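Incident review: delayed structure delivery

Summary: a single-chain prediction request sat in the queue longer than the usual turnaround. Root cause was a stuck worker, restarted by the on-call engineer. No data loss occurred. The affected request and its eventual output are reproduced below so the record is complete for anyone auditing the incident later.

Affected input:
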Amino acid sequence: MMARIRSFLREPEALFWTFVFPILMAVGLGIAFREQPVQRAAVGVERGSAAERFLPALRGAREVDARVLEPAAAERALRTGEVAVVLAGTDAVVFRYDPGREESRVARLLADDALQRAAGGSRPVPTRDDGERRPGGRYIDWVIPGLVGLNLMSTGMWGLGFGLVQMRQKKQLKRLVSTPMRRGDFLMAQMAARVCFLLLEVPPLLLFAWLAFGVKPQGSMLLLSALVFLGALTFAGIGLLAASRARTIEGVSGVLNVVMLPMFVLSGVFFSSARYPAALQPAIQALPLTALNDALRAVYNEGQGIAAVAPDAAILLAWTAGSFVLALRVFRWQ
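Output delivered after worker restart:
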């Protein structure tokens, strides 16, 4: 028994996942879902609609956060969840919302209550509902791109990290020193090999999401493929850097855990990173997984083009180039 206990205490990876990881997860989730004041219902008012004349009444309601939006922006905000309901229409006020979302149903009732209070009860404000499911508006639509990003990070970093350390332990890297192959060529070959596995990783997940839940990409598949390719290169480069000097599986596991855990918690895989305080947002937005998830969602859920994802792509390119250059400088064969 004592031998097993001593063996366990000598494994940094086991200690991390047993004692440190639960505490760090509790801290991260505690900050994300910290106690906050009662949230006001986000209501969009379409510019030029019949609802715009009731804007003072909506803004005067304590439970409503009303904002005026252009028609295209209002539809996008409703689809992405930035607003829970949109007030539009010409003759009568039309409530556009997703009946499958509880916050949308509540926001519709609160907005209607504000309108009827403004009318004074003598002559009710004519309204009608436009309740239908919006493509990309469900939680499953939102989480699938996050799972793609998480998969690219996990397989890229663990696969390359473990592979290089195993080659170093088996003296395979040391034998390559005697060959004409340069260090840069070897590292680029490792990244290229990582990209070859994309066809086995991403399409099955997207196909399952489509067949099982009806999750369909709203934007260009070519642009989506380019982002997946760039994301794979980014995390392959970070994986190379993490394994550049590690000599044992335990050592590289510790490095990878330290690098991946902040992104796992902060980068908006299972819930929006907007839940974190504003002071943390600059650091969160600079993380490669945050940039990848935001770009994937912009194309997959919102149908956005190159201009919308260019800032996130620039962040990914910077991480790719920076990690590869650093790995090239510090990598050792043995």
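Verification: The first strand starts at residue 41 and ends at 46.
Action items: add queue-age alerting; document worker restart procedure.
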